[in-house]
User: Which sequence fits this backbone?
């Protein structure tokens, strides 16, 4: 497959997943805030920390973190390269340049979702009292897109590049959703383990559609259980480990490897991180500290992405190549 | 729907006779439309618009600050062509393409037609579209113009006239294909009853033609596009998808030892045939325009070495120049010894003194065109322009006569068109598509472009035109 096309498909996967997760971020925070006692102020700043968009935010809005501004920033702001609108636009732009590689159904659904988000921006959804229905629709639009792709796209190289992008992005974003909890301040240290603390953990699980599954496996809500579940669980499709394992399989499919060892530096970096999580338990996370552990994860995921880029997407300048041959 | 109020305004109307009766090939459509309510028609139009948006059937407009993506308005009332009429068109187009192909081969090689003074030597050799690097070239299988989209119009007399030959990279075929899919949904029963010839196998025919250009059993085919910002990008991508070909941009390709390769995730892979949708001078900065960033350095050398085929061949532009156009009837006669089946519009060449004199004196009745501008730019419609514009073009012509031709204003036939909630006559042209591979084949369908503004004769999509599905009937 053309390197340029593979690159666009990979980013199509990343951007659709990013758009979906940003919709989830807003949803989780909204739900958390509803559970706060009425005398406490809403906290929207933690979301900006967790998404990693803090610098861009303060450069534009200063240190004012009110709900409407934060929702606008995360969902609709064109100056935020990761906002839902920007991500879905980028996904669509990537899809547009490789449309011949997509099924008609996936392209049309993506196009429709883009127009839906654009309409939301025109209707100023961030100003509404409860924008959750809008974000719910964004999520289901993208999930429908995945479903369509699943039943219409052939499992050739392009499929695996999109899955690769999607799973790497999801691994990163699940770690960031978990990080939201770290940044949310409880009214006092004594509140750790309080009913409100549990409410937070529950809201978090619900935001990644993990609540029921968690309950069946762990029963009680407890922080170490939630951490273990979202980072290390081997079966839950949004856990960091699960995503990395799937992403690793994609790399093997792409290189045609039998899954033993590695054939390129992307597989090496991916395998290292996957096995680290495979042989970790929740105490390893707690010993390092949740936030620090997640931070390191995110850095390694970035490194894997860079390795993918240099292995598959780099192309030579054909002008230089030609003049060299002629000399 | 009150089609009874429909008035034919002294033009040739494709559906209605001057006396008001409906032409026989439109009868069934007429019956249906009379039974269809205004509301229902509005709904059909609405669904057609929505379908286009969902498909992303957009084009980009230059000189327009309304954002880059626009939809080409698709009118839901079809243009219908009976078989008897089509048969003549088909024969005429085949004849014309056959002759033009012989002409191209000749002027880049033996130049017999120039030596015999049938076509003036300087007109060809001094044309900026006559590409020197192509001298001595015989393209694979001897074919130059593989894909042609000839523009025709019908005048008051009900006869077709060739307007332009479009031998370079004619666009619009994707609209023909997608519009058909949309319009089929609007009149499912009528399609069967009337017997409309299908166009949906165009991509297959195009693919077969491209494969024919290579001697390999399974050649690798690519569509070379200037990229996403090109106004016809949707079409490039659509055709690549429909053919299962690679859609490539210049920097995807690399030339090594006169072979062309694609840069893939698994290294270099040979490519054998390119359907290039890049102007010919842009395909290779080493052979043609050195400033082209869109092309592939070394591509032309590889082409000349026979290691890659290209459609259309570089250099075809010289034959669809508006001044060369005037000679096409003589070109047909010269190579085929046949009378042209399809008429040219009478054309005055400002490069010739008598013609120029006539043009300057009668500019208010003529259409003046630049010889190598496209898309309705740089033209004057005499009867619609004011004195100042006439004077401006007189000056332009005098300062650079070879650059201009003039033609009488044709009246352009009309087709009923849904305008808001009324059906009114609007002027149309016709662009059928012709493929030249193992045989010359005219696709039984066309892009009908319609000038949506009342009385307007400019049908170009870049100037506010729309389109219609074109039904060629079995009978």
Assistant:
């Amino acid at each position: 497959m053309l390197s340029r096309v593979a690159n666009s498909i990979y980013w199509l996967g990343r951007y659709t997943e990013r758009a979906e997760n940003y919709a989830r971020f807003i949803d989780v925070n909204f739900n958390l805030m509803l559970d706060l006692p009425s005398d406490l102020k809403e906290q929207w700043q933690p979301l900006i920390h967790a998404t990693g968009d803090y610098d861009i935010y303060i450069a534009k809005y200063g240190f004012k973190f009110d709900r409407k501004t934060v929702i606008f920033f995360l969902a609709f702001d064109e100056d935020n390269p990761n906002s839902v609108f920007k991500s879905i636009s980028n996904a669509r732009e990537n899809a547009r340049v490789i449309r011949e590689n997509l099924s008609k159904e996936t392209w049309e659904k993506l196009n429709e979702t883009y127009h839906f988000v654009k309409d939301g921006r025109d209707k100023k959804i961030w100003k509404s009292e409860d924008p959750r229905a809008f974000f719910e629709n964004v999520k289901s639009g993208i999930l429908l897109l995945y479903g369509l792709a699943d039943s219409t796209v052939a499992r050739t190289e392009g499929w695996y590049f999109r899955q690769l992008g999607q799973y790497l992005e999801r691994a990163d974003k699940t770690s960031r959703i978990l990080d939201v909890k770290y940044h949310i301040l409880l009214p006092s240290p004594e509140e750790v383990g309080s009913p409100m603390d549990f409410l937070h953990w529950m809201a978090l699980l619900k935001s990644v559609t993990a609540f029921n599954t968690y309950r069946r496996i762990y029963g009680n809500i407890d922080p170490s259980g939630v951490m273990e579940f979202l980072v290390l669980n081997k079966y839950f499709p949004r856990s960091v480990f699960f995503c990395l394992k799937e992403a690793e399989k994609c790399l093997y499919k792409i290189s045609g490897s039998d899954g033993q060892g590695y054939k390129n530096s992307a597989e090496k970096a991916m395998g290292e991180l996957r096995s680290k999580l495979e042989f970790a338990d929740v105490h390893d996370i707690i010993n390092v500290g949740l936030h620090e552990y997640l931070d390191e994860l995110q850095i390694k995921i970035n490194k894997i992405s860079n390795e993918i880029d240099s292995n598959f997407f780099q192309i030579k300048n054909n002008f230089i190549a030609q003049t060299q041959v002629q000399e | 729907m009150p089609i009874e109020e429909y008035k034919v305004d002294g033009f040739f109307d494709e559906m209605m006779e001057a006396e008001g009766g409906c032409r026989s090939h439109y009868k069934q459509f007429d019956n249906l439309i009379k039974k269809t309510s205004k509301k229902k028609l509005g709904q059909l139009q609405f669904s057609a618009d929505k379908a286009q948006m969902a498909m992303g059937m957009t084009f980009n407009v230059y000189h327009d600050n309304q954002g880059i993506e626009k939809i080409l308005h698709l009118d839901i009332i079809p243009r219908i062509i009976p078989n008897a009429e089509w048969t003549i068109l088909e024969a005429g187009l085949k004849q014309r393409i056959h002759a033009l192909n012989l002409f191209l081969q000749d002027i880049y090689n033996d130049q017999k037609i120039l030596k015999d003074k049938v076509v003036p030597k300087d007109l060809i050799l001094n044309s900026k579209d006559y590409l020197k690097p192509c001298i001595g070239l015989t393209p694979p299988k001897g074919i130059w113009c593989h894909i042609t989209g000839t523009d025709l119009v019908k005048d008051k007399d009900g006869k077709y006239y060739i307007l332009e030959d479009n031998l370079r990279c004619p666009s619009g075929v994707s609209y023909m294909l997608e519009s058909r899919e949309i319009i089929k949904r609007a009149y499912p029963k009528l399609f069967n009853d009337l017997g409309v010839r299908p166009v949906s196998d165009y991509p297959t025919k195009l693919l077969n033609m491209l494969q024919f250009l290579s001697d390999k059993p399974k050649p690798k085919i690519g569509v070379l596009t200037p990229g996403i910002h090109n106004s016809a990008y949707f079409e490039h991508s659509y055709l690549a998808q429909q053919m299962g070909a690679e859609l490539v941009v210049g920097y995807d390709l690399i030339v090594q030892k006169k072979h062309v390769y694609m840069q893939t995730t698994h290294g270099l892979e040979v490519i054998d045939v390119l359907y290039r949708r890049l102007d010919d001078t842009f395909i290779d900065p080493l052979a043609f325009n050195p400033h082209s960033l869109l092309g592939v350095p070394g591509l032309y050398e590889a082409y000349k070495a026979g290691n890659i085929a290209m459609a259309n061949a570089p250099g075809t532009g010289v034959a669809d120049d508006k001044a060369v156009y005037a000679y096409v009837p003589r070109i047909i006669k010269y190579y085929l010894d046949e009378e042209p089946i399809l008429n040219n519009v009478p054309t005055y060449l400002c490069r010739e003194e008598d013609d120029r004199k006539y043009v300057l004196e009668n500019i208010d009745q003529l259409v003046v065109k630049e010889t190598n501008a496209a898309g309705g730019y740089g033209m004057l419609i005499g009867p619609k322009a004011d004195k100042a514009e006439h004077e401006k073009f007189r000056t332009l012509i005098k300062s650079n006569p070879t650059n201009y031709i003039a033609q009488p204003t044709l009246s352009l036939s009309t087709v009923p068109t849904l305008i808001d909630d009324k059906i009114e006559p609007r002027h149309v042209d016709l662009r059928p598509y012709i493929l030249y591979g193992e045989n010359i084949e005219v696709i039984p369908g066309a892009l009908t472009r319609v000038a949506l503004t009342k009385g307007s004769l400019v049908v170009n999509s870049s100037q506010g035109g729309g389109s219609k599905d074109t039904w060629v009937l079995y009978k």
User: Anything to note?
Assistant: Residues 3-34 of chain A form the longest helix (32 residues). The mean pLDDT of chain A is 90.
